[in-house]
Amino acid sequence: xxxxxxxxxxxxxxxxxxxxxxxxxxxxxxxxxxxxxxxxxxxxxxxxxxxxxxxxxxxxxxxxxxxxxxxxxx
Length: 74
What we know:
Elements: E1 5-6, H1 8-15, H2 19-27, E2 34-36, E3 39-43, H3 44-53
Antiparallel strand pairs: 1-3, 2-3
Helix pairs in contact: 1-2
């Protein structure tokens, strides 16, 4: 099965973070990612892991007992 990957712009919308917050979290390694040419792609598993571990600050948090990932990008 092929894993879903998201761009930084999609992460901004998905997690309600600012563009600079996503960029800094990519830079500091909070969101493990891959580069394909000039594109940055963040695997869904990395996003889930960060949310489960609560390693993201700001207004995004995971309430106990909630699923860490409920999103759909079309």
